[in-house]
Design brief:
7-stranded mixed sheet, alpha/beta, 412 residues, globular
């Protein structure tokens, strides 16, 4: 099967779906195709991290953000469950595992990310799960109904949010973190200890500096053994050890990649008429003047809109301060901007553990570039504006460290 489209969108998540909607609004008669390797129309990945969804307290139908008739009504050819094999930028063609070929005039790669898998074969036992897709969520939803004890592996968003889910389900929960404290690659010990204290108050037992040596049991998991010989029992194990990006099929195309797909501030790649958006995009941020990757929903949505407008012939740089928030077990967390602890960045601290709120403001060249916040999400809007407006804060360092200081007064 050979087909030809003016706009070919690879990826059916929020970036790709926002892009096709924007393209259709911009060109009513253009041929548009959207291809996804998942078998479903557009659904909410945000709900996949919500304990109430897993426990059936939210109707399952709420997951769907588009039904299949939406694609038909907007004259978008929708191809679910389709695996891409090769990109030929000379022929302007994408080839698929079923032998079909789609040619394009303009291409958007919004292909997302996939969960890192445990490298050892013994992690393939029944009862060991990952969380990235709707199918992953379905397996966990079913397993938690009959499980007796849970182990969560990984000190990130998945580990935190799944801790709350299994505790709400009434299961004893153990969290294993390889690092010195939770999220130690992104924030400091105070932040990590505040989060760990909230988890422990919620009934989660935490092992830090813990490395899993093997998964116990026969066909089904019965627990794990750590490097120090400690054995922990569980019939439900959920692993959240980061993500990787499905870019291997693009290697022969000449597309420039690093961790993800490299792009400029317009989300253009080095290949002609090829853009990228969403989690996989490693793009130039004109606000902080660095290549960044921002894997969250709102960033991907704005990516899809900007990339589509540029495919329509506009020349809009992507200027957006990304943010992510979550809450559970009596604590709220927010990341805004670029929170990587690079050596050329200074940190201003607001609050402390004794006040039950704490923020870290990351500064580069006298400008805020990012922040992490615990129980301080009300300041997210003001910090976003300070980053976006590139405001010089060199004479406000003392004030910024005062938790009583109103950050909004700095915004002109």
């Amino acid at each position: 099967m050979k087909k030809s489209y003016k706009y070919l969108i690879m990826g059916g998540g929020v970036a790709g779906t926002t892009a096709v909607q924007t393209l259709r609004q911009g060109e009513t008669d253009a041929s548009i195709a959207l291809v996804t390797d998942e078998p479903y129309p557009f659904y909410s990945r945000l709900l996949l991290s919500k304990p109430n969804f897993f426990l059936g307290k939210v109707p399952f139908e709420n997951i769907w953000l588009r039904k299949e008739n939406w694609y038909q009504e907007n004259r978008i050819e929708f191809f679910p469950g389709k695996t891409s094999l090769v990109l030929d930028p000379v022929k302007k063609m994408v080839g698929f595992s079923d032998g079909s070929e789609f040619s394009y005039q303009k291409l958007l790669l919004a292909i997302g990310s996939r969960a890192n898998r445990w490298p050892n074969p013994d992690a393939q036992k029944k009862g060991v799960y990952y969380l990235r897709t709707l199918d992953d969520a379905k397996f966990i939803m079913e397993a938690v109904k009959t499980a007796h004890r849970a182990i969560l592996i990984g000190g990130g968003f998945v580990g935190f949010e799944m801790c709350e889910m299994v505790r709400m389900a009434g299961l004893p929960a153990t969290l294993l973190v390889r690092e010195n404290f939770f999220w130690d690659f992104l924030w400091d010990a105070t932040s990590g200890h505040m989060l760990e204290a909230a988890l422990e108050r919620g009934g989660v037992k935490i092992f830090t500096k813990a490395t899993v040596k093997k998964f116990l049991g026969g066909e089904a998991v019965s627990g794990v053994e750590l490097d120090d010989g400690t054995q922990l029992l569980a019939d439900l194990v959920i692993i959240g050890i980061g993500v990787n990006y499905p870019i291997d099929w693009l290697e022969s195309s000449g597309l420039k990649t690093s961790r993800g797909i490299l792009a400029n501030e317009h989300l253009e790649t080095n290949l002609p008429d090829v853009w990228t958006a969403g989690d996989v995009a490693e793009y130039y941020d004109p606000i902080i003047c660095e290549q960044v990757m921002m894997g969250n929903w709102v960033n991907a949505q704005e990516h899809g809109r900007t990339a589509a407008n540029n495919m329509l012939g506009q020349k809009r740089p992507f200027r957006f301060v990304s943010f992510y928030t979550t809450q559970g077990l009596g604590i709220s967390i927010a990341f805004v901007g670029d929170v990587r602890p690079e050596p050329d960045r200074e940190v201003i601290y607001r609050g402390g553990e004794e006040l039950n709120f704490y923020a870290r403001l990351l500064v580069k060249n006298d400008r805020l570039v990012g922040a992490t916040m615990i129980n301080r999400t009300a300041e997210l809007g003001a910090i976003s504006k300070l980053i976006e407006k590139n405001i010089n804060i060199s004479d406000k360092v003392v004030a910024l460290g005062d938790p009583a200081f109103d950050l909004k007064t700095l915004i002109v």
